[in-house]
Amino acid sequence: MVGRKAEQTQLDKLFHSDKSEFVAIYGRRRVGKTFLVKEHFKGKFAFWHTGLSPYDREKKNLLQDQLKAFHITLMRYGLKDSPAPKSWMDAFFLLEQLMEKQGTGGKKVIFIDELPWMDTARSRFISAFENFWNGWASKRDDILLIVCGSATSWIEDNLINSKGGLYGRLTRKIHLHPFTLSECKAFYKAAGIKMSLYDIAQSYMVLGGIPYYLGMLEPEWSLAQNIDSLFFAKDAKLEDEFDLLFGSLFVNPEEYKSIISILAGRHAGYTRDELLKLTGNPGGNNFTKQLNALIASNFIVKYSPFGEKKVIRYRLCDSFCRFWLYFLDKKKVTDRHFWTNNLKSPTLNAWKGHAFEELCLNHIDEIKNALGVSGVNSIESQWALRGDDEQEGTQIDLIIDRADNVVNLCEMKFYNEEFRVTKEYDKKLTHRLNLLQERLPRRKVVHMTLVTTEGLSLNEYAGAFQKVITLADL
Asked: Cα separation of 164 and 223, whole Å?
């Protein structure tokens, strides 16, 4: 398995603990939740069931179908001479009986995948599941109950933030994030895909470090050929992924897609009130739940802009969604070999600049490590200052305000060669530096930091940057 070291360590601790454990694994769809559990506990499952997808099924038979599927899994693991359960209370009682027949000795790993799909309308699933954990599993010392599902909002509402019988019952929650650049590099090496650091970064800017998408790349093709095959070719594998992704996650996918589409239009994001106005949403608790579900699914993040602690903005952080909306929304591109034919076009260059900024924002830990301050507390934010008749405005995509009284003003530049500071750009940097310094306490000093691909070309203006971070560092 590539990566997931911290998550595997947590699962090991849970497996070897001296009490029953209840863990929820959540995160964006396609991020590898099921794969993590399958590979880590290979050969150790006492019971593994996957809920049936409610999509493309007759709603009137959903409960019966789910119960039948659960009963089949019970029989597959050894349950005999039992009638099919008529309710979830009966179904979980049968699971208890099955586990008790396995005797004692070692942890029994019970994995229920796609748990939210099992909670159909008027099924009283939550009550039965609550009784299973509170009334039976938690009273033992040999159960490791692992649940996960693509519908992260359900996991959030019913398990993580439960106000009912499952309140505080989770013993661990694991938020699985997309791969980092280094994990993408390791994945490609393991898959026999040869790719330069420059192309690994571009693949991240397109696929967002999602393992499922990375696994679709063909080793014998170039990155450009793979992108065309996945998105622009006839019957492209990921051509409809955006719609399928949200349709499989949310009951009202169009409302979530509307939020994502709007956020894709502004790199710095929007406030809640701005989003309400732009989406036409009436607001209320439901809108807050939608935003929280998108955050939990790794689609968006919230942050406070520099100097505005009371202001909360929401920003799209999913590179795949940003790419899809930029090029494929409303069938903007019709060329079946679009990527290969436009490698040096202004359109792709403009996109690469913004996409690289997003990549950097998703690798702040790596940036801090390259700065040698991974252990220093910091606040990361963006900043935009509107200009007026007296003063030119500016926009800074990353400010790292450190507890050691240093502020890194980060400039992100995606180039296929060393970046060169021109006289005009040097003036722009000085302007940004002065504007930022004016708004900082006197004890704070600003370090100009360049995050780029190949490094910095040494000329008379190169001294503008105190630190240069490259793709190798990231």
From this structure: 49
